[in-house]
Amino acid sequence: MRYSRVASLLGEDMEKLHRAKVLLLGVGGVGGFCLDCLVRTGVDAVTIVDFDTFEESNQNRQIGSENVGAVKVEHLKTLYPTVTPIAARVTPEWVAAFDFAPYDLVIDAIDDMRAKVAIAHAAGEKLISSTGGAKKLDPTKIELASIWKTHGDPLAKKFRYELKKSGFTGDFPVAFSPETPRCKDLGSFVGVTGAFGLTLCSAAVRKLIGT
Predict the structure, then answer these.
(1) In the Cβ-directed half-sphere of 129, how many Cα atoms lie within 13 Å?
(2) What ranges do the domains of the chain cover?
(3) pLDDT digit string (tens) for 111-120?
(4) Does domain 4-209 bear CATH number 3.40.50.720?
(5) What is the pTM of this model?
(6) Per-residue pLDDT tens over the stretch 63-90
(7) How far is CA 113 from CA 62, 79, 157, in A?
């Protein structure tokens, strides 16, 4: 049985995963691994949103990136047939026009700060978010905490500032890392970006089963 080993771990909670509807925004280095984890764990109904195509420079960290030039969500649909792909750029305008109501959980794995703030307002308590995994080497530094308790991560600091500025008063968990950046350019290591995605998936599974 495909999910027998997960079922041994989760028992009757497996049915909650099979019934869940999850919206995953961004399927790059972080989101792609989150997607893989969700599907392998039994979350069948995942809607994925991303506008980008795969580039050769993605191949050090992104699932599916060997198919250079392909639209990410469309190619990932061939790898994970149960997902629903939406090829779109996640902007504040897109967020304002999108219906978040059908989803049990919203996972934010994008980089654009204005869009992240808009997602927080739209998704509320359904949200699990992530900062960036670039420029870092140690996955054991990754933490999951309330957005208001994040620390040592420049993107998380910016996120908190912009949320306060926008009048947001809610709360949601965020995967972040206080590890000191090791470079100034866009260096990345799949051991960290992938671990960010797996951290998001773990948080999602635990929230969906109510633990």
Answers:
(1) 31
(2) 4-209
(3) 999 999 999 9
(4) yes
(5) 0.97
(6) 999 999 999 999 999 999 999 999 999 9
(7) 21, 29, 11
